[in-house]
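Q: Structure for this?
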Amino acid sequence: MIDLLQLSAFNAAYAQAIDSDALETWPSFFVEDCKYRITNVENERDGLPAGIVYADSRAMLEDRIAALREANIYERQRYRHLLGMPLVEEAGDASAVARTPFLVARIMATGETLLFASGEYRDRFVKREGKLLLAERVAVCDSTVTDTLLALPL
Amino acid sequence: MKEQAIQWHGEGYTRVPFDIYGDGATARQEQERVFRGATWNYLCLEAELPDAGSYRTTFVGETPVIVVKDADGEIYAFENRCAHRGALIALEKCGKADTFQCVYHAWSYNRQGDLVGVAFEKGVKGKGGMPASFCKEDHGPRKLRIAVYCGLVFGSFSDDVPSIEEYLGDEICARIARVLNKPVEVIGRFTQALPNNWKLYIENVKDSYHASLLHLFFTTFELNRLSQKGGVIVDGSGGHHVSYSMIDKSAADASYQEQGLRSDNDKYRLKDTTVLEGFPEFDDGITLQILSVFPGFVLQQIQNCLAVRQVLPKGADRSELNWTYLGYVGDTPDQRTVRLKQLNLVGPAGFISMEDGAVGGFVQRGIAGAQGLQAVVEMGGGDTCSAEGRAVENSVRGFWKAYRAHMEA
């Protein structure tokens, strides 16, 4: 049975991967045919499907990290994720559905910290070979506005 | 010549004073001379106003406006400012309304922006109220003229602005019609807060020179080589432009290797190329078309990835970029998925557009001490006309030609 503690531990490791710049490990939190999307509450309310990031495979997540490392130009920055307690909506031995609130602070190379995003992960978890993984994570931001750019994933 | 906050130097339009990007007096003059001047400002899509009473709130420059469809099927727009004390009339981004009522003192307006109700106009129990001479017809928010072209709704505060077709010119009209040739629907909306003056973003849009130098992702996947077929169209006013390219796979491209530029990297390959997979949709072979309409509208076709962008000033050194992602109403589910995946290229996190969110800020910060100094805009010489190839800045100079004409500078 997937429980709250497992989900919380998963989320803690997920946040640590991004916040500690271990971005190459970020895709490994997802199954191969995963869905990952970043959108906002207004698009969700209106049923608009687009995301500012829209992936339907783990390979696309790996490509995004490769692009961030090799192609895209942005000022050095890092995140600090603060994740709330998952609200478990369904949980079984092999799968779970949960939503988890997030706050993400962005720390720029210049030393400034700002509250970059708040919102909620809407997640579907599965267990594969005993390991908890994300089949789907939709990061629904509370604000419709992104400051400057979004480089690192949420 | 009107009073100017900024002095222009140099021949033609090849020098741009850095002060133009941060000066408060200039920003105020722009509101009157550019945004409320003889220009057409993009307000919304016709598709976003489906029914009688459907409305959206937006801005012309920094002036808040309401754009609404009335029961006669016509679209109207008026300032979102109560004639009484100046409060916002509508507070939501969109909705449906029979009438609009200001929350402050309940003055109400019909869908055409006419003041139709003043609370306690005759007083209460014979006391107070408006003088008998008060005439509601003489009071109301300023109204805009409306023009709809290919489903794009434009508004103008000016009585002098020519018709939208004349304003755009034949070439720009044709290039808009080529993309908006059938009904569209919104598939997402996102806003990007830009740490720079609005003009820096518009210049970036018009600047085909930077595209393959700043955006490595684009270049690597042969979407935007400078040696591709393509070019820049600039209209007679200078203010509108189209940059376009067509993939020419047979053409060998050594121009980057020769120059040893950062943007060529053979080692970089995608693991999941479906993000770039498209389907033939435009029979003219144009894979990229970026079109701008003065002052702050952009229509984008990158393969099958369609969007409109609205650039709004927010003070002298901030601006807002509103992205509206589009599909066609008749899209198959597979076609829709292609658009959703290609949208990874654009927007605040776009593989080929995220840098554009930051470079304006790099300029804004870079010029903080550059009072009296100027930017050099001389690629391709001093022309503001249409040009072959993309290593030119004709459309950037065109912007300044139109801007200075409106500012009378």
